[in-house]
Amino acid sequence: MKKNIIKIALIAMAAITMPSAMNAQNKVGVSDLLNKAKTVVKDAQTQGTATNQAVNTAKDVLGDLLGTKPVTEASIVGTWKYTQPCVAFDGENTLSNIGGKVASSGIETKLANALSKAGITPGKMTIAFKSDKTFSATVGKKTTTGTYALNGNNITLTFKNSKKPITANVKNSAGVLQIAMNTDKLLNIVQNVSANASGYSQQMATVSALLNKYKGMYLGLKFQK
After folding, report:
1. Does 113 share its domain with 210?
2. Of 66, 85, 109, which one is at a domain's C-terminal end?
3. Torsions phi, psi for 154 (to 5 deg)
4. In the prediction, which pLDDT does 105 show?
5. Tell me, what CATH number does 92's domain have?
6. Which helix (H) or strand (E) holds 218?
7. Could you tell me if 129 and 206 are in contact, meaning their C-beta atoms sit under 8 angstroms apart?
8. Radius of gyration of the chain, Cα coordinates, nearest whole angstrom
9. Number of independent structural domains in the chain
């Protein structure tokens, strides 16, 4: 049993130190996760009740890194700045996500270009979540408000001027908030927050064609505080 725990700890530490995670934006969050992983190893070397604690800590470490832990209101309250687009895949299989990331780099580039046509560029869009379950999104000089609801790894956004709620997958990992959804839902968000959604729509024709080649692929936005 103890050997299995140590394996879990080592896997967590290896994942945490992956090159893709070690960028300037994530240094603080990755450092915190690494400290947690070290705690797992220490606990795994003890006897008795520390065993269950080590397993639970290992699960928390991996959940923080991979974004599989349910997102809480407390963890997203605050103002987040848009940093880059993202391409995500359905499911939580780590190897599939890593392979998908490599294959989807070209799509992310095209998506970034499309979003820029709508004024959504790094630092030019913010989204603020409040504890009263309301939010505001600002792109350029336009600010849109609404309400939000969390359910595990899903977030539902209801814009004030739209009666149709938009549900998307949400992850908060190493200080990065990721909101991903299918193409139509992302278009709906852009139409709500941007004063130039038509520019985005024109550029998305190429992206949509590429998406047809992949199953379970979602597009989204990444934010940092």
Report:
1. yes
2. 66
3. -115, 140
4. 76
5. 2.40.128.280
6. strand 217-224
7. no
8. 19
9. 2
151, two tokens? 């359910």
172-198 pLDDT, tens digit each: 988 899 999 988 899 999 999 998 888
Instruction: Give residue for tokens 């893709």.
Output: 20
Rounded Cα distance, 215 and 221, in Å: 19
Same domain, 129 and 55: no
| Residue 155 burial (CB count, 10 A) | 22
Residues 84 and 53: their CA atoms lie apart, in Å, by 36
Indicate if 120 and 197 belong to the same structural domain. Answer: yes
Q: What is the dihedral of CA 204, 205, 209, 214, to 10 degrees?
A: 20
CA distance 40 to 61: 9
pTM value is 0.68
Whether the per-residue pLDDT at 133 is higher than 70: the answer is: yes
Q: Which residues contact 72 (CB under 8 A, 6 or more apart)?
A: 150
- Contact between residue 33 and residue 72 where contact means Cβ atoms under 8 Å apart: no
Assigned token pair, 110: 């095209």
Structural domain that includes position 9 = 2-66
- Average pLDDT score over the chain: 75
